[in-house]
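Case 386 in the screening queue. Each case pairs one protein sequence with one candidate compound; here the compound is coenzyme A. For every case the pipeline is the same: read the inputs, emit a complex structure as tokens, and attach any notable structural observations.

Predict complex for case 386.
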Amino acid sequence: MSARVGIHDLAVATAGHVLELDLLAESAGIDPAKYRVGLGQEQMSVPGPDEDVVTMGAAAAQRIIERHGADGIRTLFFATESGVDQSKSAGVFVHRLLGLPATCRVVELKQACYSATAALQAAADMVARRPDERVLVVASDIARYDLDSAAEATQGAGAVAMLVTADPAIAELESAIGISTADVDDFFRPNDSATAVVDGKLSIGAYLDGMIGAWDDYRAHGGVDVSEIDRFCHHQPFTKMAVKAHRRLADHTGVPLGAELMAASTGYNRRIGNSYTASLYFALAALLDSDDDLAGRRVGMFSYGSGSVSEFFALRVCDDYRTHTRGEETEALLAARTPVDVPRYRALHTAAAELNSRVDVAVEPGVDAPFHFAGIAGRARQYRRA
Ligand code: COA
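Case 386 output:
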């Protein structure tokens, strides 16, 4: 990639409720330290009936449109593994809610937690060919597992929107990329199921194998030595997973990599839980919003999607990135979530599964958010601005 191409803006959204994992642990008779320390998670965002990947994705993307307008946006990539339709892209709903021009193509991408990275790379290549165009990448997901399952504490919800342009203000994408794909049944969601089927232990092993495969391919394709990477963002289905990945990379390369090189990247994911496709980019947002001065620094990014596809790539942070990041806005969003107790969380979880099978149903606005899922009319999903 000869032109400077990368992330010009990055904005996030999450669901309107929050559950403290200490409460979940107490109600299940589990030591809260298992979640706080063992998984590295403190809270999880819980969606209400009027929220889904469309409403969160639109809320994140709206912040970008408010700041930069829609001129020149000719592509919207919507990355998700908890999509709302088997045929129509969730992005088409976002396109209407945001009033994007008809001359903007919209596509949904799926490969578990990985597909936002495919979207980002495709967006960068499009902009490299046509530098006057801008691409909107939206990653939005709800991680929902069965009640009382081992995976329950690793649920969550959130969206990240990124504007990919030439001469970016936040971070430039470097061209070296490492990839590793393997057919593994560690995690999948059959068409008839509202919750994912997950073999957690298998997924941890598949993630770590994918990381090493992607790292070796990165090096074989011109990627820099690990000692030339200043900070790391590893995919975070739960933040302790990123710690495990970081240690594995250090063992594999034989180079000591201190925990301080990735610690700041866990700040948001500890509080929203797993947001699948958005998770890696919440890690990047947390790193950018931390006190660490990253100007001119190289950030190594490891993206993993069960099933599985893994990718390692790097970003170079722009010199004046701090004038473009949104730390205060994100803190305000997290603080605005309504706390729920365990019975309320369980009721919201059950209601979400029941809604999926309805043919006609009206859903009243519940949370304070810019967009709402308004129900289903003749099997078609309905969305409204607040
Ligand atoms: N205090 C501190 N740590 C504790 C603890 C306590 N009282 N009790 C347990 N732990 C630690 C365990 O030692 C373990 O840490 P380690 O992996 O570093 O050894 C961690 O907490 C989790 O405990 P474990 O017994 O392995 O949990 P689990 O079997 O109930 O489930 C997952 C954990 C991640 C497998 C499960 O949440 C899951 O399936 N999640 C969804 C899949 C996923 O996110 N996969 C990631 C790759 S994509």
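Case 386 observations:
- The domain at 5-171+325-385 is CATH 3.40.47.10 (Peroxisomal Thiolase; Chain A, domain 1).
- The first strand starts at residue 5 and ends at 14.
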